[in-house]
Amino acid sequence: MAVSRAIRKAFLAIEQSEGAGARVRRSIGTPQLRNFSPFLMLDHFSVKPGAGFPDHPHSGQETITYVLEGAVDHEDFVGNKGTIEVGDLQFMTAGKGIMHAEMPRQNPDGSPNVGMQLWVDLPEKLKKCEPRYRDLKASEIPNIDVDDGKVHIKIISGQSHGVDSVQELAYTPVWWLDIEIKPGGKVKQSLPDGWNAFAYTLSGSTTFGEGAEKTTVGQYHNVVFEQKGDEVYAEVPADAKENGHFILVAGLPLDQKVVQYGPFVLTSQEEVYQKIMDYQAHTNGFERARGWRSEIGKSMVH
């Protein structure tokens, strides 16, 4: 018998400022939810024209960016550049060090660019790997409809109801599903045993769990599941006014210490100090940072 995962906690992600004029709702990486390996941070960002995330470093983690509205340009010191649009994702492995800029598109109507960014820890043995980028376009993402078409699932990474994602996207194994449930719809989604998992509600209200465990959450809430159990149950009542839309993410916990200083994530205090010195001295992965400035970030310099 499949065992439905119990809910450890559910909480609202509070909006805060980040970067240059951007607004984010951060749920993972706050006092509400720390030490949730392999996840370091989850931001639901809304960036209006004229704001963004100009040139900044990363080391020791991977970032997954998912665009929900608008578009985001990126550029790094290796020469990678590109744009991700609605429904596209970008996977960046910082490895031993990268400098990049992420700038929202200037939408003619002044509308904000909205998306999710998840930071995933790298296994200790891969902390010094070469940085890399992969983009996943919306058109490449497999999807499936279940429960007589009342549930639509995009399989960004992982598997759902017999459908596999295109490819492994991160060095650390992560499943990422985008699930939308119409009123009256319900779904049981299997997850790998022992992985940490959460659901973040993008819009509408969704009820998670079964029996006495049932918890209904609204927009901007993060629902954190217990590790025990092999599936997550979600439904939207038949009398709901709108669809429930959420991302369901699971990842393999890493048995290692997390020492984080801003964008540098390592496994000891000494390594963090060393990485800060590397960044300042342009050594050990940050050689290309010397004198580098992104073209897209220059729009922020007044």
UniProtKB/TrEMBL annotation:
Output the superkingdom of the source species. Eukaryota
Q: Which Pfam family, giving just one, matches this sequence?
A: Pirin
InterPro entries linked: Pirin, Pirin_C_dom, Pirin_N_dom, RmlC-like_jellyroll, RmlC_Cupin_sf
Cofactor(s) for this UniProt protein = Fe cation
Q: Does the keyword Iron apply?
A: yes
The record, for SUPFAM superfamilies, names: RmlC-like cupins
- This chain belongs to which protein, by name? Pirin N-terminal domain-containing protein
Species whose genome carries this gene: Amorphotheca resinae ATCC 22711
